[in-house]
Amino acid sequence: MGTEAEAAGIAKKPRFLCLHGFRTSGEILKKQIMKWPDSVLDKLDLVFPDGPFPAQGKSDVEGIFDPPYYEWFQFNKEFSEYTNFDECLAYIEDYMIKHGPFDGLLGFSQGAILSAGLPGMQGKGVALKKVPKIKFLIIIGGAKFKSPTVAEQAYSAPIQCPTLHFLDEKSLPMVMEFLERIQKMNVQ
């Protein structure tokens, strides 16, 4: 049975799992995102977990943000080979099961790379098999997987959900239009 708001046809806030950047944390991403205007934040339900692995090297944000720092997975210099990648995917899925459901993903940097690739991997049945289909993406400062195997799984088909890509501070005005669009889609 739905809530009174849902019964009245009022859209619920879309719930986003927010994946932080390399060697940062959920708390750091939260501090950055909470600088967005209230008119944006009031339309979103945001959850900020830490990556599964403690940082294995110096963080670029040391001296700016306090530790601890985390990584989602590790990679070689060319970003073509990944360590702990399967464990990362399992961690995200387990988190989504325990704390969900989630409507979408918001990712920054390493979290954006994961967020952009996960819908394709979910569609191929290689990730997020036990959670509802990802409906929305917000990508901030993203890039692509370079491993041919992972890229094939992530990008062989176009993303089938609404996406918003932030490239710089000029992207923020597009957020309201995106939020209005997904809010209409999210009416239960």
Structural features, described:
The structure is a single chain. The chain is globular. With 188 residues, it is an alpha/beta fold. It contains seven helices and nine strands. A hairpin with a 6-residue loop joins β5 (74-75) and β6. The longest helix is centred in the middle third of the chain and has 15 residues, at 85-99.
Summarize the structure.
The protein is of the alpha/beta class and 188 residues long.
Biggest sheet: strand arrangement: 2-1-7-8-9
Question: What general outline do the C-alpha atoms trace?
Answer: globular
Mean pLDDT level: 86
- Report the order of strands and helices: HEHHEEEEEHEHEHEH
Radius of gyration: 16 Å
Report the major sheet.
5 strands, parallel
β-strand number: 9
Portion in helices = 25-40%
- Beta-strand percent range: 15-25%
Residue stretches low in confidence (pLDDT < 50, at least 5 long) are: none
- Structural class comes to alpha/beta
Count, helices: 7
Determine the N-to-C terminus distance.
Answer: 11 Å
